[in-house]
Amino acid sequence: MIESSYHEGDSFVHAFDPRAKLLLLITGITTLFLPFGVEFSAAYTGVFILLAIPAAGFRHAFSPFKLLLPLIILIILLTPPFFKEGEVLITYRNWILLTEAGLMRTIVLIIRFTGITYAFFLFFTSTPLNQVVLTLRWYGLPLNAALIVSMSFRFIPYITTTYHHVSDAHKLRGSYQTGMWGWSHIRGLLPVLTSVLIKSVKTIPVMAMSLESRGFGSNRKRTSYQRLRGGRILFTHFIFSVMISLIIIALPYVVA
């Protein structure tokens, strides 16, 4: 299982030091939960989306929306009924379907989930997984924990690739078609998901052997085949990331 979400490129996002990028990642996600106005959260999320274009290419920059769409639909359907405060916007007979508070809460949740998704997408698209592990170890994360993070993020694109392969195989057999809707779509999707689940479970021994071969659980001091560069470049990128972090945190207070 060597699948990776890394997209090779030469953009300024790729050239940025992964240790500084991780700091910006944490800061960017944190700002989405600070008590700022919704316009600032939307602006920061928009910046993440725009940065994904040079990092992943225009063709793949909007692929996270495919994963977000079911979650966004659930937020739109399930969030408004739990917020009855504020001005009533939509009613059906005696049922309150949408209020001003429910609308604002729905928008905030959509912005937050989109921002978090694109922040991680931007980081892992522009950073090779070996550098991710080295970055986590540089910040003091134990080797075992760094390996778990590495294998987890390798497993996610592996599942996606497996799903596409299995669905293509079922399409060739005529048991599943993308144009199906309703109950037919669910019936056609069930054997595809079952096949993906079985194939994923069968890879557990392979994952266990991979972790064992990399010394998972060993108490011996480990060395690294590769090292992250340091010196002036690291210092410059770190100063830049700290300045950007301070700006995005202080900007809403300055504007207010």
Keywords:
68% helix; mainly alpha; 2 strands; 256 residues; 10 helices; 2 domains; two-stranded antiparallel ribbon; globular
How would you characterize this protein structure?
The protein has 256 residues and is mainly α. The protein has two domains: 1-127 and 226-256, no CATH class; 142-225, no CATH class. 68% of the residues lie in helices and 4% in strands. It is built from ten helices and two strands; from the N terminus they run ααααββαααααα. Strands 1-2 form a two-stranded antiparallel sheet. The longest helix has 31 residues, at 143-173. The protein is globular, with a radius of gyration of 22 Å. The N and C termini lie far apart (49 Å).
Short description:
The chain has 256 residues and is mainly alpha-helical. It has helices at residues 12-15, 18-31, 38-56, 64-78, 100-126, 129-138, 143-173, 182-202, 204-213, 232-255, and strands at 88-92, 95-99.
